[in-house]
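Lecture notes, unit on binding sites. The following record was shown on slide 14. It pairs a sequence with NAP.
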Amino acid sequence: MITAQQKQQKLGSGFGALSTADDVLTGTDLTGTTALVTGGYSGLGLATTRALVRAGAHVVVPARRPETAENALRDIPRTEVHALDLADPESIRVFSERFIETGRSLDLLINGAGVMACPETRVGPGWEAHFAVNHLGHFALTHRLRPAFAPVGARVVAVASSGHFLSDIRWTDPHFRTGYDRWLAYAQSKTANALFALHLDRLGAAQDLHAFAVHPGSILTPLQRHIPREEWLAQGWVTPDGTPAAGFKTPEQGAATAVWAATSPLPAERGGAYCQDCDIAEPATTDDMLIGGVKPWALDPDAAARLWDLSCELTGLNAF
Ligand SMILES: NC(=O)c1ccc[n+]([C@@H]2O[C@H](COP(=O)([O-])OP(=O)(O)OC[C@H]3O[C@@H](n4cnc5c(N)ncnc54)[C@H](OP(=O)(O)O)[C@@H]3O)[C@@H](O)[C@H]2O)c1
């Protein structure tokens, strides 16, 4: 069996940082496929939904603001919106049970919703919001939807980030009870996304369910809503006239890696891998998040199993 580290070698997909989700899907017919894209009505998620629909898929879009989602998707056929708040375990249960009651099977689950660098926020039993929404909410959703996964070839994509460079899982204080830092909170949740995909792939392989983590690149979207404009400039995200900095992608380019990981036959034997620029990401050799790659703590199978156990304990779910 190849290790998580050995999996992180490029495959030579023929696509790259500039490829769009439509490029990746050229020649792919997703007719008859059902996909579920969390956050599929904003930013990268919206671009993902559009591309999957253009390739023939039916896309279910759960939304914490259903009316906004309906408006965003109004002109896109084969989409449907249902209420879901990933910060609310009861909402996840209700949404998932309704989906399962329809009897449909789920081919692709793209866990793309997320929050970034928000002010300290507690949800549910006092959980830190990034960890709760970006990780635990998707963990619970994937568990709840387990009976619906297609028996052959189902894939789950966890939209992670090179933001994971800044933090491993804070095992002794995952909920930041001893001092909050919004960037570390985001970073921990993105490491959690990568570890989630790693362990889900391990557990799901027996039922032909595979999982991947992806870094979409850097893209200006509503994700940055909590960051003051001066900080955008200071971080080098925009030029003084507000233009995205060199190296930033469009939402269509940002959606490409998730779509590639969800649909390409190429990474089929590399389940659990962390992907970037429409290929498997190489281990990170610098701390430059624009260059990206993957840090060792996001590939550690023991940490992935430990996080899985912690998440089962916190959510009370253990379906795999
Ligand atoms: N943009 C980047 O540069 C970048 C880089 C690396 C990774 N990523 C990752 O890419 C993913 C998508 O980001 P984006 O840039 O497309 O941001 P976005 O446009 O802000 O989209 C995020 C989506 O998540 C939804 N969401 C937030 N909290 C939720 C909750 N409690 N329940 C249900 N849905 C919730 C948002 O809903 P509302 O609109 O209703 O708030 C929105 O639809 C995120 O996981 C992010 O971490 C983005």
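Take-home: The radius of gyration is 18 Å.
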